[in-house]
Structure of HD domain-containing protein:
Amino acid sequence: MNSTNKLKIFNDPIYGFISIPNSLVFDLIQHPYFQRLRRISQMGLSYLVYPGAHHTRFHHALGCMHIMQKAVETLKYKGVEISDEEETALYIAILLHDIGHGPFSHAMEHSIVEDIHHEEISLRFMDALNLQFEGKLSLAIQIFKGEYHRKFMLQLISSQLDMDRMDYLKRDSFYSGVAEGNINSDRLIQMMNVADDNLVIEDKAIYSVEKFLMARRLMYWQAYLHKTSVVAELILTKILKRAKELTQKGVVLPCSEPLQFFLQHKIAQESFDAATLEKFALLDDYDVMGAIKSWQFAEDFVLSSLCKMIINRDLLKIEMTEGKPQSEQLQQLKAQLLQKYPITDKEADYFVFKGKLKNIAYSKESVPIRILKKDRTVEVLEETSEQSQVKAMSKAVTKYFLCYPKVLLG
Amino acid sequence: MNSTNKLKIFNDPIYGFISIPNSLVFDLIQHPYFQRLRRISQMGLSYLVYPGAHHTRFHHALGCMHIMQKAVETLKYKGVEISDEEETALYIAILLHDIGHGPFSHAMEHSIVEDIHHEEISLRFMDALNLQFEGKLSLAIQIFKGEYHRKFMLQLISSQLDMDRMDYLKRDSFYSGVAEGNINSDRLIQMMNVADDNLVIEDKAIYSVEKFLMARRLMYWQAYLHKTSVVAELILTKILKRAKELTQKGVVLPCSEPLQFFLQHKIAQESFDAATLEKFALLDDYDVMGAIKSWQFAEDFVLSSLCKMIINRDLLKIEMTEGKPQSEQLQQLKAQLLQKYPITDKEADYFVFKGKLKNIAYSKESVPIRILKKDRTVEVLEETSEQSQVKAMSKAVTKYFLCYPKVLLG
Amino acid sequence: MNSTNKLKIFNDPIYGFISIPNSLVFDLIQHPYFQRLRRISQMGLSYLVYPGAHHTRFHHALGCMHIMQKAVETLKYKGVEISDEEETALYIAILLHDIGHGPFSHAMEHSIVEDIHHEEISLRFMDALNLQFEGKLSLAIQIFKGEYHRKFMLQLISSQLDMDRMDYLKRDSFYSGVAEGNINSDRLIQMMNVADDNLVIEDKAIYSVEKFLMARRLMYWQAYLHKTSVVAELILTKILKRAKELTQKGVVLPCSEPLQFFLQHKIAQESFDAATLEKFALLDDYDVMGAIKSWQFAEDFVLSSLCKMIINRDLLKIEMTEGKPQSEQLQQLKAQLLQKYPITDKEADYFVFKGKLKNIAYSKESVPIRILKKDRTVEVLEETSEQSQVKAMSKAVTKYFLCYPKVLLG
Amino acid sequence: MNSTNKLKIFNDPIYGFISIPNSLVFDLIQHPYFQRLRRISQMGLSYLVYPGAHHTRFHHALGCMHIMQKAVETLKYKGVEISDEEETALYIAILLHDIGHGPFSHAMEHSIVEDIHHEEISLRFMDALNLQFEGKLSLAIQIFKGEYHRKFMLQLISSQLDMDRMDYLKRDSFYSGVAEGNINSDRLIQMMNVADDNLVIEDKAIYSVEKFLMARRLMYWQAYLHKTSVVAELILTKILKRAKELTQKGVVLPCSEPLQFFLQHKIAQESFDAATLEKFALLDDYDVMGAIKSWQFAEDFVLSSLCKMIINRDLLKIEMTEGKPQSEQLQQLKAQLLQKYPITDKEADYFVFKGKLKNIAYSKESVPIRILKKDRTVEVLEETSEQSQVKAMSKAVTKYFLCYPKVLLG
């Protein structure tokens, strides 16, 4: 087909060019399910902190596929046998691994699609596509579900050092300008190998692995868990909760038809059927932000106030606290609020609340990062000579915060 | 104020950090009129070609202000006197120079806000802000309108080598990954000076100036006038035209209230009053794309077909032609189309049409780029020793194209 | 072999990693003839203008080989058949194409090895290596000499858009910090193809080709022909001439034994035998700069003065003139000099002299750059639609200058 | 002066442009003492591992001065008072802080200038320059010696987060291509302040500080202490030792006059007089490498063998060992060597030896890095919330190795 031939290459400021390996992958990229990812921001509302962070899940998925191509090339060069069918399956699996994300996924999962996780929805999409593409995605799905016998393949897609993490760290760092999050994916991939069917990294790259973990840790605290991003996302969660609450009380809020559907129905894993999937496939950032834009003029004080905060970037105050915030402090803030605003005690929870942030740079509970030593033996990262550094990164760090309207600042 | 202090710096992957010079500028950035630019993409639909091109007019405006700071610093270092008041005015003028852009500006200006240009709307916004800020924008407005006596100041904001062009070339190149569009703004600014009240560039930067013009030329042909961007924008224009046509016939199309307003009313320069400005200030990409998402399910065949093209990135075929496309060719294509689709002859114009693209890298009609020679005399660029190159770039290049549905491809 | 395994990858700040394709190439890189290139600066004395420009011919040769690997990969992907033997020959030919360069090659070729050009010496080295490697370089030599029937292979090594130019522009730009010289080699290579046995570029990369030519033109005027680099090189040339003159008069100047050899003998193409090659293979920047360091304390006033200029970066004044400098002006400057310095009229020519610089960005006399159009026909660059730009770049530009001691500045 | 005006700006691929703040600094840069740094490589023989690592101490010193300008700008912006005189003194002190380095400093300090450290020699140079510049360097010298009352000024020049470390990490990473060593100096400087006369970093940059420490740690193990760099440097040390040994026995080795001087004399701190300084000021990489090139043809087997290793990059084998290498192993290797080579038992130590490498990323013994908290109190880095990570980095890591000729490899 003529038009097919023309778009075999994507420009990418990070890798230069991303080329599409074959026509099946091309057709998947062209599919409306996948094109929808062009309209879903990778970093949600983080652009309120980092104005460049408007890149999409579409671009990230392509980036993952690109570095998967590099990884496959490296592994084959080192003698790991990967058949053409497996190769294509790896590209498909990584390309579609995040296709189940909705708009502002984290906020949605805590408000209107509470009972089903995005990985599960990704799988639903893959199954639907597999039907349409006559079974050509079966191996990819098998790998994705962890049911394929060659387990390093899953590790390439989902582990503590997978293509997903590499691309998102690199990409989020690039677009946001948080330079410290950049990682040397070239070197990490160059140093990959397979031993005993596990993905391993040659030991001369051990400092690059450490640096990768540090970069991830830094991106968490400086970007993903940046307090302004966090409060923006929490406000968004509360907006969606409030809208659902009002809708279910019978209030009609202007919004797109697919969003209306999710406000009206309670979707759980069992009830997420083919029709739901079709609705879900129509949802993207435009539905959510479009609604919020309308709702800033809603009659409901809670809803309109919260929406204006997002639109005008005039957020709640978020304050990091030494330990868990005290209940008395919350009560006091709420009391003040009730004097200022015409709201009920329960509604005050939309404006005054506490929470915590938690991150582990390297988890000893998950599949470990494995290091291939010069004598060809394998050690898990936390047992290598650099263990003290890794040990320090294996501790969960928890931080507490308190949110309240700026009018209460005194 | 506490919260003010905190956001004095923006991360920018291009310049590292952008700092806000003073609290007036800070307050302007915080204003909803300006925050709206966060929701307007700088490159419109170009992301359909370059998936990274999702940066916004907000970010571009900040970037312009940043390099204006560098330019002011350089000029002062070289002894050009610039008062504090003038300095602030320059920052405000460049910050707000594009505030009058609507979503997908080019398409809108050819469909629903036909009789008023974005510069004029920028001025309306500035006037409105000047009222709110008690006259503090007066000098900025004077400079912007070309009414201030020191004309180099306008040239910094709007000329063939201004801060606007420098930032957008650098930024569009960065985010899209079209590496050749990158320019050395550092060097260009470093080499600026003022002579006889004109902005001039020292002659040792003459090759950088040429390279700047080449980069601009390349960005036009490779990005702004990329045939896929062009056809996408034309489809968008036709969508908005069709929607207005239908609305005015009484059809009710679901869309946001501000967009509804512009579909219903014919806005000309005279009728663009304060109320219109308030509506306009609510419009952004979410209104337009949100509408297009809904309209893909509209009853009208023309409207829904065009909308689906954008949403699924399944555009009309665009074919560059040697000379102007022949009328017969168009007629023939239309005839074929009428056989396939249930549309009228007039409606066929929505799907089959021709057009042309035109660009001049350097215009001899506009204010020239002036070169400061070692003997302190000034020459216009086209008269320097490099004139043959510049002459070649001063010729307008015109290219012709033809658009039609892919189903007609044979 | 153990040691072979270890160094299969070079770090390169430009391309990330450079990998060595096979053990023959590895052994060539390890050879003392090639290791010598580690001690020969790519940009000669340009570091006196651009302090970062200390990269070597060794690094450039590796870089060329790397992009040759990319080009071969692209061409094979597009269906151009290239056998394993041809592939290796291409790598060897590009790796060794500059091996005949001496230290500060240009200055040497105008002083002490006047009658033989570096390409000829490269060939001598290749022949010598071919003997040592039992004929394994024969095909590479055939290609290099233009005697192989597939002419696009020579064009990859030596033409107006070859791997050599791409790497040196990119590398010289990178290390010197002349950002405008950077080119998009990724894109240019991605767009290469072969048609009628000629190397061609797809027409959608035509602006990248233009930009490449512009970058080269800019690098000439801003770096290679920068007036300070030029005067430094001319002083170096005169130092070596003077040293040869004195040596042949019987003066013994302290210097390394290989340099001594070239000062004592007049080497022409015929007399450049195997023994001469061995001496030449010992020469590098250390011999020349080491000698200049000693000679700043030489008795001869001319020699010591010129050497001090280089060592302390206190060069002759170089003045660009409108047309050719007038003889009277030179005579006058010389007359002044003779009053100040204890030198003869003839020796004054070492300090006061004129010259010219010449550059053509794109030569119509050489093998043209060929453009592959969408209809699969081929056009030479100067006949494409962008011809006015290319025409402007095809004109030779000549600039004149005059050099004299700063003490004469008045 | 005319020529002075012209070179007020240096191109730098890292920072864009480096400008010279005033004419005193300009004159210092022009001084032969400082120009000599153009001929001293920053990373010694590391180019044998990283072919791009040919940047010089000259460039590094300029880079340090550049970021010192940024730091001063930031601190003044935050209200720290710094007088013009202090500002200039800071630029001079950082510019000259490394002027006492000889060629391949580390190797020299372990062979021919054993009893005086490079900081001491820097001071000698500064004192000599202060004489020539009529006392204008007095304040800079005071700061450099730690005798000025404002101690944060010394911390900017020499501490665990000074301009020196920032520039060398950035520069060494850039030129070598070890991407992981890059640090965000912009952000670190942006976050600097002064509290209680100590240099402090605002706590929101704590992850950048950590990342800086990690980058430094990585650069040590991956570049400065890379085993190939280490063995090359040890061979160089042994070459110089052997040459001194032979010279003092009366053997005449061809080399430059200044190097001859240091081979003949034993220089200690007391005997390092003005005449010695003048000799030292003539020494650079060209003397050392020039000598090694000659000495590869020396009669002495030990000397010529070691020299050939460097010239042809055919080094001793270096093997990292689990613990300290056993004496028996060394004895055995020596015994084998004595059978192959015509050398004495003592001479065998030149070829077979052991050693260790040691590094601490962050030393608790030195002046700590201080963190400024939001409540304006100051904490030392190791006591902040991120302490576990820092603690891990405060442990000294020691690695052991063994070197021997490859012919013994079996």
In short: The mean pLDDT of chain A is 92. The radius of gyration of chain A is 23 Å.
